[in-house]
Amino acid sequence: MKRGQILGILALLLVCAVTVIPAMAANVTVTTTHDVATDYYNYGELALETGNYTGAVAYYDQALGSNTTMMNLAGALLYVYQDKSYAQIKMGNYTGALAT
User: Fold this and answer.
1) What pTM did the predictor assign?
2) Residue 67's domain is classified under what CATH number?
C-alpha cells in the first residue's frame, strides 16, 4: 500500500469514529428510578449514622408514608422497618420497636 492510501483509510476511519459513535450514544436511553421514599430512607440512614435517632425515625416514617413501590420491588422495604426499629431501640422505645 502506498502512503496516500493508508492516510485515506485512516481519515475514513476517523470520520466514521467521529460520526458513528456519538450517533450510537444518542440512541442509548438511561432510565433511572428515583422516588421520594428512597430519598427519605437515605436521609434516615444519615441521621442514624450521626446518632440523631429521633430524626431517623421521622425520616423513616416519611419514607413509609410515601409511595414505596420502588423500594418494595427492590426488596429494600424491609430495611426501612429494620432501621426504624433499631433507632427506636437506641432511644429506649422498646414498645415502639416491637410495634414496628
Assistant:
1) 0.65
2) 1.25.40
